[in-house]
Design a protein that fits this description.
Protein name: Spore protease YyaC
Strand content: 15-25%
Order of helices and strands: EHEHEHEEEHH
CATH architecture: 3-Layer(aba) Sandwich
Helix content: 25-40%
Shape: globular
Organism: Paenibacillus violae
Keywords: Hydrolase, Protease
Strand order of the largest sheet: 1-5-6-4-2-3
Structural class: alpha/beta
Number of strands: 6
GO molecular function: peptidase activity
Pfam families: DUF1256 (PF06866)
Length: 201
């Protein structure tokens, strides 16, 4: 199922955060949350994910239940995505994983946020074959897919991307706040202390 709403709609945060939380509650069998924000800091049009990640890192740094991958400082992109996925599978094998990425779409959909209840297929707009990730994913439509060339993409507004990232960050914070009390308790091995490290790759 996919839900969509324009990022400037005043109901966007409440609408999508509620839908995301309900998706988790339909099968609440996880002990932590992983958010992986895909993109690069080299191009404005592909920086939505890392911008979201950097905003969230200010809120969730060191959080015991929320682990973040992909920021402007340490982005997750095509070159390290597979390695990051492998690390997440090993270190957070019982995590509810939310993926975030920019996407291309039809002209009239630019500015739309899409919450899709299936794994993210990163790079599909650019015909890249990258591994899927996430139990659910959020996409922000940042430009028109029919005009795919670097001259057009370079004209994507940084202000537009920044504003969209702020909305996505707010709805993810709201969702995490609602999901955390519903997480399954993590099994403790002896007297081993829980892992409080929030990492980025």
């Amino acid at each position: 199922m996919m839900r969509h709403i324009h990022y400037l709609d005043k109901k966007s945060v409440a609408y999508l955060s509620e839908a995301l939380t309900n998706h988790y509650l339909s099968k609440p069998a996880y002990t932590e949350i992983v958010i992986i924000c895909v993109g690069t800091n080299r191009y404005t049009w592909d920086s939505l994910g890392p911008m979201v990640g950097s905003r969230l890192s200010e809120r969730f740094e060191g959080h015991r239940h929320v682990h973040l991958y992909g920021t402007l400082e340490k982005p997750v992109h095509a070159l390290n995505l597979q390695k990051t996925i492998a690390h997440i599978a090993k270190s957070h094998n019982k995590a509810y994983t939310i993926a975030v990425d920019a996407a291309l779409g039809q002209f009239y959909k630019i500015g739309t946020l899409q919450l899709v209840e299936e794994p993210l297929q990163p790079g599909v707009s650019l015909n890249k074959e990258l591994p899927p990730i996430g139990h659910i994913h959020l996409k922000g439509i940042i430009n028109n897919h029919s005009l795919l060339n670097h001259k057009v993409m370079e004209h994507t507004s940084l202000t537009f991307i920044d504003e969209m990232s702020a909305v996505i960050s707010r709805l993810l914070v709201k969702s995490c706040q609602d999901i955390i009390p519903q997480l399954m308790p993590a099994p403790q091995l002896g007297n081993e202390a829980p892992n409080h490290l929030s990492s980025a790759t």
